[in-house]
Amino acid sequence: MKNKLSLILLIVSLCLNAGALVTFGFLVLRKEPAEASGDFRRCRQGLNKAELDQVDSLERNVFEKSNPIRMQLYQKRQELLALLKEPVLDTLKRNSLIKEIAELQVRLETISFDHLSDLKAALPAENREKFIQFVEECFCSNSDSCCPGESGNNCQHKEK
Predict the structure, then answer these.
(1) Could you tell me which of 131, 114, 123, 124 has the C-alpha nearest to residue 40?
(2) What is the structure's pLDDT at 158?
(3) pTM listed for this prediction
(4) Quick one: pLDDT at residue 33?
(5) Among 1, 16, 118, 134, which residue carries the largest CB count within 10 Å?
């Protein structure tokens, strides 16, 4: 009986591991990032080579600006996690770390918004409306309620 139980547990474990490997392999081998959808491509349709180059340059620029801040944010969150593991919470250190994290998040939000503004300016007029719709959908898809006073399902920006 003990051997049968061990064998069943081994088979279940192997199946779970195989499933995880297949899922991970699928995500790694995809040509698009998991979070990205083809939606932004509709904003790029009709752009000439110079406009595409400008959009690509803006993308690289925002990554170069935001990546160091993201790394700092990660480090501060790790420090906050380390505080949680301590037997006695140092509330002064916690407050200081939370304030630093909030400041980094504000910097990232500012960089992101400026990037969206730059992208909008780089697009031809006929693509700007599609871009604004894309941004609205992204903002709404990342929260339960993007419209004050409305549930997420009733939000005018959500896709029906």
Answers:
(1) 131
(2) 47
(3) 0.59
(4) 41
(5) 134
Mean pLDDT, contiguous 10-residue spans, the chain (160 residues): 65 62 56 45 68 83 90 93 92 93 93 88 82 76 50 48
> What does the CA dihedral 105, 106, 108, 109 come to, rounded to 10 degrees?
120
Contact 43, 134 (CB under 8 A): yes
Question: Measuring CA to CA, how many Å separate 12 from each of 6, 7, 18, 109?
Answer: 10, 9, 10, 44
Residue 87, pLDDT score: 93
Task: Tell me how far apart the alpha carbons of residues 145 and 132 are, in angstroms, rounded to a whole number.
Answer: 18
Collect all residues with Cβ–Cβ distance below 8 Å to 89 and sequence separation of at least 6: 83
What is the structure's pLDDT at 103?
A: 95
Q: How many residues does the chain have?
A: 160
CB 44 within 8 A of CB 134: no
> Is 108 within 8 Å of 69 (Cβ atoms)?
yes
| Contact assessment for residue 135 and residue 113, using Cβ atoms and an 8 Å cutoff | no
